TrEMBL record:
Protein name (record): NADH:flavin oxidoreductase/NADH oxidase N-terminal domain-containing protein
SUPFAM superfamilies cross-referenced by the UniProt entry: FMN-linked oxidoreductases
Cofactor(s) demanded: FMN
Domain (NADH:flavin oxidoreductase/NADH oxidase N-terminal) ranges: 14-363
The keyword Plastid is assigned to this record: no
Amino acid sequence: MAGTSSDQRKPHPLFSPYKMGKFNLSHRVVLAPMTRCRALNGIPQPALVEYYTQRATDGGFLITEGTMISPTAAGFPHVPGIYSKEQVEAWKKVVDAVHGKGGVIFCQLWHVGRASHQVYQPGGAAPISSTSKPISKRWRILMPDATHGTYPEPRALATYEIAEVVEHYRQSALNAIEAGFDGIEIHGAHGYLIDQFLKDGINDRTDEYGGSIANRCKFLIQVVQAVVAAIGADRVGVRMSPAIDHLDAMDSDPLNLGLAVVERLNKLQQDVGSKLAYLHVTQPRYTAYGQTEAGRHGSEDEEARLMRTWRRAYWGTFICSGGFTRELGMVAVAQGDADLVSYGRHFISNPDLVTRLELDAPLNRYVRATFYTQDPVVGYTDYPFLSKGNGSKLPLSRL
Ligand SMILES: Cc1cc2nc3c(=O)[nH]c(=O)nc-3n(C[C@H](O)[C@H](O)[C@H](O)COP(=O)(O)O)c2cc1C
């Protein structure tokens, strides 16, 4: 290193340490939560241990795929749950292996709401939601036999039933902690159950959970409060996507919807005297991940304005996700637009993504056709690591 200025030796902020509450992270590259359909009867299999271990780094932060909080939460084939003893036991193996590599791992708690089908529901019942309006035919549901179907008409939850769903989140959070997870992420994004309450393009309720922004935020905030009371704010992250229309999740005023959520999370942090682990927001530029490469793209300026407004308003760690390249991630962190950046598709095809980004090494291309297939190896754990030949350039901390 003779002749190198100390400035040149300093890692770029994307690869520099960050303290996320009680967690000391060694870099800012996060594994985004991604459904991969490799569980069996709701139970994580050895392939999941391998997959998450491959993507773990010392001091790196991983978020699991969406994980069912109850039997009615399912809307994809072969997704894992966290509501039964057997599921908790199986997750322990994943968590232990990730911890063995020094990683920090949160479990994403998921209920798909109306984004389901009778075939996934106990007793062949209709999926539950904030509404009885189905998702439009523009969207197709992946069926257990790998064909695509139409989303059926959901059953709107009665007001008195909502507390029970909140309880499922609370219990699942406790289960996640029992499994050894460092925390949980509440999936409030992408058109699933919580988003079905948040957005006025879906929520047509006339009770205290519908109508005004305050009412539409109520379900999410009750879930956050219940989970925070159970496991502590510093183990809870929240994901939202106010500006994303995935599964018809449109809102007439995404900016203010996002701000309303942020304000309530800030207040909750103040009330409990502790920060949440983070707020995770999906960029509008990334939509329709399951369906096509190009979703509805807004203008870059408008998008940056939305993200920056929420980022500035939120009192805590802010994670951005959606369409990040190495360069965009570096800019986002360097400019203070994000504390951490979560990577999805590139992390599917590059188990050693952190190293590759750090070295500016070429990336493997992801294969969309195997995103949601069930083979425990193909398209899952068989993406190659950088070859040994590149090893000499690896920084010691990652070897
Ligand atoms: C195959 C696949 C599955 C996904 N599953 C989830 C999920 O379970 N929960 C979630 O919050 N986001 C999910 N996402 C969205 C990702 O977390 C991420 O926000 C998205 O892929 C955008 O990041 P990228 O452009 O880096 O891929 C999924 C994305 C992909 C590609």
